[in-house]
Amino acid sequence: MVSKSYTNLLDLASGNFPEMGQPRERKQLHRVMTVPGVISELDDDVANSVASDVPSSVVLDRMIIVVNQLPVKAKRRPENKGWSFSWDEDSLLLHLKDGLPEDMEVLYIGSLQADVELTEQDEVSQVLLDRFNCVPAFLPPDILSKFYHGFCKQHLWPLFHYMLPFSGNHGGRFDRSLWEAYVAANKIFSQRVIEVINPEDDFVWIHDYHLMVLPTFLRRRFNRLRMGFFLHSPFPSSEIYRTLPVREEILKALLNSDLIGFHTFDYARHFLSCCSRMLGLEYQSKRGYIGLEYYGRTVGIKIMPVGIHMGQIESVLKLADKEWRVGELKQQFEGKTVLLGVDDMDIFKGVNLKLLAMEQLLKQHQKWQGRAVLVQITNPARGQGRDLEEMQAEIQESCRRINENFGQPGYEPVVFIDRPLSLSEKAAYFTIAECVVVAAVRDGMNLTPYEYIVCRQGVSGSECSAESSGPKKSMLVVSEFIGCSPSLSGAIRVNPWNIEATAEAMNEAISMADSEKQLRHEKHYRYVSTHDVAYWSRSFYQDMERTCKDHFRRRCWGIGLSFGFRVVALDPNFKKLNIDHIESAYIKSKKRTILLDYDGTVMPQTSINKTPSSRVISIINTLCSDVKNTVFVVSGRGRDSLGKWFAPCKKLGIAAEHGYFMRWSAADDWENCGQSSDFGWIQIAEPVMKLYTEATDGSSIETKESAVVWHHRDADPGFGAAQAKEMLDHLESVLANEPVAVKSGQFIVEVKPQGISKGSVAEKIFASMAESGRQADFVLCIGDDRSDEDMFESIDNAIASGILNSSKSVFACTVGQKPSKAKYYLDDTADVINMLEALEEASDPSPSPGNSP
């Protein structure tokens, strides 16, 4: 079903953009590598999967890096005589190849920071491919503006930094045409990837929030593609993210990746919470790795902050012009203590909060007047808008006020630099700064502290390296809301909104003893120097390899429309139950056993009215009327409910409360299958459950004759699961000496007598039939949750012990595509009913003595 939050996504995914006109025609870039067969042009992007079983002629792995902007500088030559290109050495993504295997080819795909005419695009593409191994994606101007300055900068960037559009003038309302442009731009990027990819040998690594729906476009074409995504910005809490009208489309698109990376656990935790609350997905941690089970695929979650490129910083430190600049700066700030800020001109960087903290420092600690200087370097703004203009005016006013109130002849407490600086000039400022202050109110990572630490360390052989004559030392005051904060344990962390506390932290940093500064610096330098960009990319690549290792072993196919598209990946031995196949086996058999779970199998879990429909009653009656059949409903529900609901089915066997009570037909008495009739333990379990019920809104207790069940389906997903885990431990502790089993299931915690399970029910039925000379030659067992796995396991045990013949028709079937001991699955209860209807038609109703053995 197409998502209700966007009614025309199918058109978007097909490349139809009625509001923006048709994309421009252009020649395709020559393929760099090819897949077996023919790749069709992508003007109509059908969800045809390229998943050939023919081995590729190219065996070397290749990494395709997809970014919004290529790490290449483009400059038009004088008099419009072509273009000149060079690597952008400041781009971190350029250096991530240092962590990949030496023999691995790296291909970059992204847009250029230049407006290339349509007539020049083929030539530019070829030059970039030949000289830089880059493939440019050219976006039409109307799409580019709405994609980047529109959806990315007006919607995603503010939202991911916790700014909500409370009014049309503050951040801007959601604009559907901007979302269309975002989808269109991602589609163009996907076309460039598909033109050059070899899906069996290539890895694809997508970067940042500009390309979050790209994984769906690629997965539609290549089911087994090895694909990772890394988000370089924060990921907001679910309370913020859920306000996005296209929230589910983006989540589902990201889940088409194999590995999703975040800088910090906080960002990953927020993403996992969104998947839980909006998609009902729960994550699992296994041997240190976090994974989300999504339609048979395990989507890995990677937590690894990016690092800096050590070689680049160290080479800059060796530059002669840089060393000359250091001497000049030392002379300029002689006798002064320099605090340094290096930030983008951005509303989230907290530059004005930092200036206010500096003002507070000079007021509260007058000894620093005339001595402490804050040098604030701001990189040019990448965004635009009224909020940015207001912030710039505030910054200028604060600088003017502080310098007027505290300035002296030859002393300016704030030196504000708002022009672009080269990396070597920034390194010079880092070298002479006693402390770096980062006061961002929200930032994905922020590598300024890392660069500062390396510059303060200096490099051997550099005559003017930082404090070359003494021990290396540095101090950091960093906001607790930035991605690098958790990795800098020696930094003084602050809440930048608390001006007074930030001012005190700045005073503490510059007043600290040199020995303490040295110890903190050494700790930071050890971390930064070993966790560089190469370490980050190597770690991500290794996790991608691990996550994708079973891709070509599993059977995969794509289902769903538009951004509801996903790939179902299953073990080769786990198959969908074929109705024709089971019907054929059913007709040929002479003695059949049919075991049906109730909730989630013949009755949808979401249904409020749990009474079986007349259609279900009719099907079961027909199956029971066939003399060859022994039919049982095996459920966790109480015998009164099941007996009442299935009263019309006189020949139906019922096992209630997971088999504690059992009868072969309505004419038979209920058997008590429990080993003990002592239920004194209920007096211990119920008070504990009541305690948790009072503390957990939406939870409830169900008291059965033989068991007590705590339900938390209607509670908050996160809190309910946490309370269930805590309750499980609590009950196991207080009931340790009682003859009971405490188990958790789908939104339940249950306490029941030991030795009672659906598996024991199945074994008893198989054994009774075998003893009476009616050994089953056809077994159908269907269930949907953890308790039904006991039945599937009992079938294997019965075959091993000879109660069932392995050569006979045995169909253990789970409902839903998930890890199971069953060998077959059906998608949902509707599939189950369809299958039972087919068996109903193949049945031969005739008078019979019922199910009794």
TrEMBL record:
<comment type="similarity">
    <text>In the C-terminal section; belongs to the trehalose phosphatase family.</text>
</comment>
<protein>
    <recommendedName>
        <fullName>alpha,alpha-trehalose-phosphate synthase (UDP-forming)</fullName>
        <ecNumber>2.4.1.15</ecNumber>
    </recommendedName>
</protein>
<dbReference type="GO" id="GO:0005992">
    <property type="term" value="P:trehalose biosynthetic process"/>
</dbReference>
<comment type="similarity">
    <text>In the N-terminal section; belongs to the glycosyltransferase 20 family.</text>
</comment>
<dbReference type="InterPro" id="IPR001830">
    <property type="entry name" value="Glyco_trans_20"/>
</dbReference>
<dbReference type="GO" id="GO:0004805">
    <property type="term" value="F:trehalose-phosphatase activity"/>
</dbReference>
<dbReference type="Pfam" id="PF00982">
    <property type="entry name" value="Glyco_transf_20"/>
</dbReference>
<keyword id="KW-0808">Transferase</keyword>
<dbReference type="InterPro" id="IPR036412">
    <property type="entry name" value="HAD-like_sf"/>
</dbReference>
<dbReference type="Pfam" id="PF02358">
    <property type="entry name" value="Trehalose_PPase"/>
</dbReference>
<dbReference type="InterPro" id="IPR006379">
    <property type="entry name" value="HAD-SF_hydro_IIB"/>
</dbReference>
<dbReference type="GO" id="GO:0005829">
    <property type="term" value="C:cytosol"/>
</dbReference>
<dbReference type="GO" id="GO:0003825">
    <property type="term" value="F:alpha,alpha-trehalose-phosphate synthase (UDP-forming) activity"/>
</dbReference>
<dbReference type="InterPro" id="IPR003337">
    <property type="entry name" value="Trehalose_PPase"/>
</dbReference>
<keyword id="KW-0597">Phosphoprotein</keyword>
<keyword id="KW-0328">Glycosyltransferase</keyword>
<dbReference type="InterPro" id="IPR023214">
    <property type="entry name" value="HAD_sf"/>
</dbReference>
